[in-house]
Each structure stands twice: as structure tokens, then as C-alpha cells.
Design a protein that fits this description.
mainly alpha, 5 helices, LOB domain-containing protein 23
Length: about 150
């Protein structure tokens, strides 16, 4: 018997056996990790998944189950797919900004210095983003990614 129960056994209010499948992946100092996974997948299903995997793959599977459960709780409709979609949109917006700036650089390098037009911050300079007063793209979205993980 372990000296302390893992988060899973505490949550399930049972003794933690020495061969507990949850113990290495759901430590007692992080009970929320198991609570999220249990809420989405159920303890029995998670136990079956972990037992069916080779020992060297279990940690990765537990991390994946936790991340997917956490995202599903944050966004019940889309889960981690919603976050992936937002990140793809941010990559697309950055690529558009890069292409626009590269085009401006190419155009400016072919013009004499007297014909160069100065960029004014805040003006709408392309279809992919709207810059703020400093010319930085404003990527407002449904999610504030900085609050996802505590």
C-alpha cells in the first residue's frame, strides 16, 4: 500500500493499492487533473485505456486525456478542436501580415526614396488583420489563450 493515495483513489474514495494504474499519472498534489479526466471519460474507461497500453506509453496517454478533457470542459462544443482552429487562424493572419510586409518591402526597395509613402499606425492595411495604434495585429478571438492553463 502506498503511503498516500493518488488523486484518483482520493476522488473515488477508495484505498490506493500498490499496483494502482492511476498512481503514477494522477498524483495526489494535483487532484483537478483526475477530476477533469473522470468528468469527461469516467474512471473505469481511463483505467481500461491505461491498462491496455504499454507502460512506456501510459504517461503520454494520461497527458493527452487530461488535455482533451480540460479543453472539453472549457469549450463543451468544440473542445481542443476549437483551440486548434483558433491557432490555425492566428497562423493564417500572421502569414498574411508577413506577405503584406514582404510586398511592401519589395515595392519600397524599387522606388526612389522621395516617392516612399510613410505608413500611418491604425490605418487598415490589409484584409488579414486590423492593426492597433502601434501597428501590431489585433488577434481578438473567442478565447483568451493565456487563461487556459493555471
Amino acid at each position: 500500500m502506498n503511503s498516500g493515495r493518488c488523486a484518483a483513489c482520493k476522488h473515488l474514495r477508495r484505498r490506493c493499492p500498490s499496483d494502482c494504474v492511476f498512481s503514477p499519472y494522477f498524483p495526489a498534489n494535483n487532484p483537478r487533473r483526475f477530476a477533469y479526466v473522470h468528468k469527461i471519460y469516467g474512471a473505469s474507461n481511463v483505467g481500461k485505456i491505461l491498462k491496455d497500453l504499454p507502460v512506456n506509453r501510459r504517461a503520454e496517454a494520461a497527458d493527452s486525456l487530461y488535455y482533451e478533457a480540460y479543453c472539453r470542459i472549457k469549450d463543451p462544443a468544440y473542445g481542443c478542436v476549437g483551440l486548434i482552429t483558433i491557432l490555425h487562424q492566428q497562423i493564417y493572419n500572421a502569414q498574411c501580415q508577413l506577405a503584406r510586409i514582404q510586398g511592401e518591402i519589395a515595392a519600397l526597395s524599387t522606388q526612389p526614396q522621395s516617392e516612399v509613402q510613410q505608413y500611418q499606425p491604425g490605418e487598415n492595411v490589409g484584409p488579414c488583420f486590423v492593426p492597433d495604434q502601434n501597428g501590431v495585429p489585433n488577434f481578438t478571438s473567442y478565447y483568451d489563450l493565456s487563461t487556459w492553463f493555471d
